[in-house]
Write a sequence for this structure.
């Protein structure tokens, strides 16, 4: 059985991952690559959540508590993701301006992440019945 970091709860019956490659994390090219890698601009929340929060989101320039707001672009624009009090949260876009003005306010939301990962798409969403991943601009291809 094999597991991947993209789908840790899925057992892959037939897979050959080969011999692990050795990696020297202090290698200058790896450090430079990690430091210059731009954060994802699109990410997707999949699953069956309360208030139908799943969909594709796009990073905005607006910040709440020092983290970017993400606006849903598919299937519609009625949701957004924001960081508040140590968790990522999803709520209705009708409250976006108010929460932005109050820097998160009381953190009211439909669903929230299980943890406070640096990026919402790296957070665990098990309690909300969802999984998240960064995606290419077309919203379809997971970024590695």
């Amino acid at each position: 059985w094999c597991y991947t970091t993209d789908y840790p709860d899925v057992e892959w019956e037939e897979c050959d991952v080969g011999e692990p490659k050795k990696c020297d994390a202090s290698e200058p090219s790896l450090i430079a690559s990690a430091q210059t890698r731009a954060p994802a601009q699109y990410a997707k929340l999949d699953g069956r959540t309360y208030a139908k929060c799943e969909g594709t989101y796009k990073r905005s320039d607006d910040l709440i508590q020092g983290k970017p707001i993400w606006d849903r672009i598919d299937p519609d624009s009625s949701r957004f993701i924001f960081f508040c009090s140590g968790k990522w949260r999803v709520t209705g876009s009708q409250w976006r301006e108010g929460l932005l003005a109050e820097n998160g306010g009381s953190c009211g939301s439909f669903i929230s992440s299980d943890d406070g990962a640096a990026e919402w798409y790296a957070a665990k969403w098990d309690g909300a019945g969802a999984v998240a991943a960064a995606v290419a601009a077309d919203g379809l291809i997971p970024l590695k």
